[in-house]
C-alpha cells in the first residue's frame, strides 16, 4: 500500500511539475569552538608534516640528534682551543719579555766586557809607563813616546793618541809641544802634513805641560780620499827646535 501511494505521488508531481521538497540538516557550531578546532587542525597538520620530514631525514641517513651532539662537541672543542690559544699567547708574551731581558743583559755584558778590555789595555800602558819610569830613574831629563797609534775617525779624519813620559825624578814641570808629521797618499800622490803648522786648530791638543807623563789625544784632517801612510811624533821643548824624543808609526 505505501509503495502504491509513493508511486501515485511521483506521477502527480511529474504531471503537474511539482518538485519534492528537499531537507538539509545543518549543525550550527559557534566561533568559540571553531577557532580552537581550526588551530588544533593546523597544529596537527604541522606536527604530522614535521614528523614526516624528520622521519624522512632519518630514513635518508640524516640523524638530527647525532648532528646536534656533534655540534655541541665541536663547540666545546672550540672553547678549549680558544682557552689554549689564550694560554699560548700569554706564554709567548712571557718568552718575548724574557728574550728582550736576556738581549738587554747580553748587550750590557758586551759593553762591560769592552770597557774592561779598554781598561785592561790602559792599565797595561800605565804599567809599561811605570816600568819605563823606574828603569829611567837614573837618567834624568830623558823623554820617551809610548803607545803611538792612529786610526780613521771619519772619511777625511784620523784620530791619534800617545803617551809622553819623562824619566828620572824631576822637580819641575816640563813645558813644550808635540810636532806631528803625517805622510798621506791621495790621488796617486804622496803629501806631508805638519801639525800644528798646517792645521792650527790642533795646537791646543799638542801642548805639553807635565812633570812625569802626559797622555795626548787629538785628530787631524786629510785631503778627500786620502790614506794615512805614516806618522812621526816629536817632543819639542819650549824655545827649542831640537826634539827631545821621536817616535814613528808606519801604516803602509
Secondary-structure map with pairings?
Layout: H1 2-16, H2 31-59, H3 64-135, E1 143-154, E2 157-166, E3 174-186, E4 189-195, E5 207-210, E6 213-221, E7 227-237, E8 245-250
Antiparallel strand pairs: 1-2, 2-6, 3-4, 3-5, 3-7, 7-8
Mean pLDDT, to the nearest integer, reads 80
CATH architectural designation of the largest domain: Sandwich
Question: What do we call the CATH homologous superfamily of the largest domain?
Answer: Immunoglobulins
CATH fold description of the largest domain: Immunoglobulin-like
Helix content: 40-55%
Largest sheet, strands/sense/barrel: 5 strands, antiparallel
Mass-distribution shape = rod-shaped
Low-confidence stretches: none
Number of domains: 2
Could you tell me the number of beta strands?
8
What structural category characterises the helix and strand content? Answer: alpha+beta
Report the sheet-strand fraction: 25-35%
**What is the terminal separation in angstroms?**
160 Å
Amino acid at each position: 500500500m505505501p509503495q502504491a501511494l509513493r508511486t501515485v505521488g511521483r506521477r502527480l508531481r511529474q504531471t503537474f511539475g511539482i518538485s519534492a521538497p528537499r531537507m538539509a540538516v545543518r549543525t550550527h557550531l559557534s566561533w568559540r569552538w571553531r577557532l580552537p578546532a581550526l588551530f588544533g587542525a593546523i597544529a596537527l597538520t604541522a606536527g604530522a608534516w614535521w614528523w614526516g620530514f624528520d622521519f624522512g631525514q632519518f630514513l635518508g641517513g640524516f640523524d638530527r640528534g647525532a648532528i646536534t651532539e656533534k655540534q655541541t662537541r665541536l663547540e666545546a672543542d672550540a672553547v678549549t682551543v680558544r682557552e689554549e690559544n689564550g694560554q699560548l699567547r700569554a706564554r709567548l708574551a712571557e718568552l718575548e719579555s724574557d728574550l728582550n731581558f736576556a738581549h738587554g743583559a747580553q748587550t750590557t755584558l758586551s759593553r762591560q766586557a769592552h770597557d774592561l778590555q779598554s781598561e785592561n789595555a790602559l792599565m797595561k800602558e800605565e804599567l809599561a809607563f811605570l816600568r819605563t819610569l823606574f828603569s829611567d830613574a837614573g837618567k834624568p831629563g830623558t823623554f820617551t813616546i809610548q803607545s803611538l797609534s792612529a786610526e780613521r775617525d771619519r772619511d777625511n779624519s784620523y784620530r791619534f793618541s800617545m803617551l809622553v813620559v819623562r824619566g828620572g825624578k824631576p822637580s819641575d814641570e816640563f813645558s813644550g809641544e808635540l810636532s806631528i808629521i803625517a805622510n798621506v797618499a791621495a790621488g796617486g800622490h804622496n803629501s806631508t802634513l805638519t801639525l800644528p803648522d798646517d792645521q792650527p786648530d790642533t795646537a791646543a791638543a799638542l801642548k805639553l805641560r807635565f812633570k812625569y807623563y802626559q797622555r795626548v789625544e787629538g785628530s787631524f784632517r786629510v785631503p778627500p780620499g786620502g790614506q794615512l801612510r805614516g806618522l812621526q811624533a816629536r817632543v819639542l821643548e819650549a824655545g827649542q827646535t831640537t826634539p827631545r824624543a821621536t817616535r814613528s808609526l808606519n801604516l803602509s
